[in-house]
């Protein structure tokens, strides 16, 4: 579904991503792990077009999207839930959900999807007309993921969905991610919480200092390479 070849991202003198290649197959959940500053968010943001790739090539669903606008990538079915959630705190829960569907032209489908997330997360229904900023961190993350799903992506990129959340909430969020995978959604999940990310991962990439260090099944990462200790602190 996605092929990335030799992706590089630079911010002036800083090389954040160095010739990174990865693939994501239809229906796969791929985990992208690595320490702080490894270039994970830069990779995600290059995939959605929020930052420009300095070099490399990205093919999504058979189309070269290397230079495509973010909006067109969303239309094509590639969406992210950025790090730090980025819900619109002053807009209501309902308005946040509607913004996620901004690229769609099927009001009936949008209404159906809205209903789906409101029944999946009753707290979003209770707070539908309230400012999203009044939600707890975990509720905001549920809203942020629901908002991304409102664009009906084929591939969803999640950047640190567990960041700053209590363990019980983290487990709930990953249960939901597992459910999305079971429904057939293709996912790339960036995490520092390796234990949670590896619960559902089919394959894992580990990056540090912008370069790929490991590519393979989760079991091998834990058993043979000791990379979890080396790069992720256990
Ligand atoms: N907008 C930016 N301008 C300059 N440097 C940046 C910017 N964003 C990230 N960086 C740098 O790029 C590197 C990778 O950052 P990032 O992609 O956020 O890593 P991660 O998500 O793995 O923590 C870091 O050294 C970071 O300081
Ligand atoms: Mg990051």
UniProtKB/TrEMBL annotation:
**A molecular function GO annotation:** ATP hydrolysis activity
SUPFAM superfamilies with a match to the protein in the record: P-loop containing nucleoside triphosphate hydrolases
Alphabetized Gene3D superfamilies for the sequence: P-loop containing nucleotide triphosphate hydrolases (3.40.50.300)
Q: Which InterPro entries match?
A: AAA+_ATPase, ABC_transporter-like_ATP-bd, ABC_transporter-like_CS, BCAA_Transport_ATP-bd_LivF, P-loop_NTPase
Q: Coiled-coil segments, which residues? A: none
Q: Which SMART domains match?
A: AAA (SM00382)
Some GO term, biological process aspect, for this entry: which one?
L-amino acid transport
Keywords linked to the UniProt accession:
Amino-acid transport, ATP-binding, Nucleotide-binding, Transport
Matching PROSITE patterns, A to Z?
ABC_TRANSPORTER_1 (PS00211), ABC_TRANSPORTER_2 (PS50893)
Q: Identify one Pfam family in the record.
A: ABC_tran
Q: Which positions fall inside the ABC transporter domain?
A: 2-234
Stated family: Belongs to the ABC transporter superfamily.
Q: What is this protein called?
A: ABC transporter ATP-binding protein
Native organism: Mesorhizobium hungaricum
